[in-house]
């Protein structure tokens, strides 16, 4: 059988140190953030190498600056100034479509794609309060299929970049009990392309961008040195992407006109339990819920037919363990399972979502001034068969897998 190729891309935030410079850099980061990423639904849960190595089971540990994402209450465990930058690298994103019955397969064209992040935490001496600022990409998407695929009217290309700037305040209300909350400033760009179906080679394109505001909050409770409990909440947001739609050739719509599309991003709740049987071990289990039920359809202003999605809420089940060694070194391993979010009748090839199994390992060191971590991860799942779609051209088998490599580097004083 013949093999064709598709392209995939990924989102990008950026980096830098010292608190006032940090604030200036946030604007630069936003300007430098290009679109796209592969994701679970369209989430990017991988935000720190030390956490990734543990299968992202980090809500009840949250002991480095990336706690701003995983559980901001955890930053009260840090002292003084703490800077951390890092990046996740997709070492080729492999997606494949195979028609039911007979026909040619369509494979992805693998690329190395980075998703950086940056975090800063300041905990004044003898103060119960800690302050933090994070810049990261919690969502993203990018898939591009050949224009002549059989399912072209079901979607040809999607590009989504999503950048969050997240200041937080944490308070150690009681010994072992910390509370935290902070606003999120979210900027996103989106592009969607699909065939219209009336004329061979016709294309409908939407492009838009928007800002939205939300918040996150966290609780960390350690009633005993062996046990720690964490809870993290991220609010829902709605982005009204203002932009334009265009068609080629121009009928049945004007070639280009102003438009907008409203997209609901989910609320997220993650809870975890960490058990430390000895000072050398940390074992954690997390459950992470994403409320995609609110994403039913996307209506583009001036366009008669909405994009029907009907996504469903889904869970991550995360397990991780860390073994602490001499001289600050540690090794970690983890696994998490991601439930599929998209439904079969409205599955879209531009979000090749399926159940996924994610395994990871990593190593790192916490030093007197410098910290570092490296993690390797494999994201894979069984092929997903779609045979009951409202658009029969979408029916087929879809598969996604990718290896990743991530690192983080921190400095504290």
Kindly list the characteristics that best describe this protein.
mainly beta, 6% helix, Porin, disordered N terminus, two-stranded antiparallel ribbon, 21-stranded mixed beta sheet, 23 strands, 413 residues, 3 helices, globular
The sequence of SSEs as H and E is: EHHHEEEEEEEEEEEEEEEEEEEEEE
Total helices: the number is 3
The CATH architecture comes to Beta Barrel
What is the CATH first-level class name?
Mainly Beta
Question: Describe the biggest sheet?
Answer: 21 strands, mixed
The stretches of 5 or more residues where confidence is low (pLDDT under 50) are 1-39
CATH H level, superfamily name: Outer membrane protein transport protein (OMPP1/FadL/TodX)
The shape, in one word, is: globular
The amount of helix comes to: under 10%
Overview of the molecule:
The chain has 413 residues and is mainly beta. Mean pLDDT is 86; it is low at 1-39. It contains three helices and 23 strands. 6% of the residues lie in helices and 55% in strands. The chain is globular, with a radius of gyration of 22 Å. The protein has helices at residues 19-32, 49-53, 67-70, and strands spanning 3-8, 80-91, 94-98, 105-109, 112-123, 129-136, 140-144, 157-174, 177-194, 203-224, 227-234, 237-248, 256-265, 268-275, 281-290, 297-298, 307-308, 314-324, 329-338, 356-366, 370-380, 384-386, 396-412. It has a 21-stranded mixed β-sheet that branches. The chain has a two-stranded antiparallel ribbon with strand order 16-17. The chain has one domain (3-412): Outer membrane protein transport protein (OMPP1/FadL/TodX) (Porin, Beta Barrel).
């Amino acid at each position: 059988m013949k093999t064709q190729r598709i392209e995939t891309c990924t989102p990008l935030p950026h980096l830098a140190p010292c608190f006032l410079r940090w604030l200036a850099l946030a604007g630069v980061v936003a300007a430098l953030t290009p679109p796209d990423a592969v994701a679970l639904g369209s989430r990017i849960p991988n935000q720190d190498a030390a956490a990734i190595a543990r299968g992202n089971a980090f809500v009840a540990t949250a002991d480095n600056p990336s706690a701003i994402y995983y559980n901001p209450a955890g930053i009260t465990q840090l002292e003084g100034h703490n800077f951390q930058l890092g990046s996740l690298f997709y070492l080729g994103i492999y997606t494949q479509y195979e028609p039911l019955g007979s026909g040619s397969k369509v494979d992805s064209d693998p690329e190395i794609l980075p998703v950086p992040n940056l975090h800063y935490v300041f905990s004044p001496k003898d103060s119960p309060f800690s302050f933090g600022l994070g810049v990261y990409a919690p969502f993203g998407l990018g898939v591009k299929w050949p224009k002549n695929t059989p399912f072209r009217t079901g979607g040809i290309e999607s590009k989504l970049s999503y950048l969050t700037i997240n200041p937080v305040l944490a308070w150690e209300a009681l010994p072992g009990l910390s509370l935290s909350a902070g606003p999120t400033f979210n900027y996103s760009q989106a592009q969607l392309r699909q065939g219209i179906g009336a004329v061979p080679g016709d294309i409908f394109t939407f492009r838009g961008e928007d800002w939205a505001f939300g918040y996150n909050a966290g609780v960390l409770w350690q009633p005993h040195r062996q046990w720690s409990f964490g809870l993290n909440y991220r609010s829902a947001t709605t982005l009204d992407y203002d932009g334009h739609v265009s068609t080629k050739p121009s009928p049945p719509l004007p070639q280009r006109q102003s438009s907008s599309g409203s997209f609901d991003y989910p609320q997220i709740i993650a809870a975890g339990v960490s058990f430390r049987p000895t000072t050398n071990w940390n074992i954690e289990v997390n459950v992470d819920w994403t409320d995609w039920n609110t994403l039913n359809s996307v209506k583009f202003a001036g366009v008669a037919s909405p994009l029907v999605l009907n996504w469903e809420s889904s869970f991550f089940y995360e397990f991780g363990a860390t073994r602490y060694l001499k001289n600050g070194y540690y090794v970690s391993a983890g696994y998490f399972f991601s439930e599929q979010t998209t439904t079969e009748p409205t599955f879209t090839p531009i979000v090749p979502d399926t159940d996924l199994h994610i395994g990871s390992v990593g190593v790192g060191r916490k030093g007197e001034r410098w910290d570092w971590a490296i993690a390797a991860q494999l994201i894979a799942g069984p092929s997903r068969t779609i045979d009951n779609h409202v658009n029969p051209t979408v029916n087929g088998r879809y598969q996604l897998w990718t290896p990743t490599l991530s690192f983080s580097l921190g400095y504290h004083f």
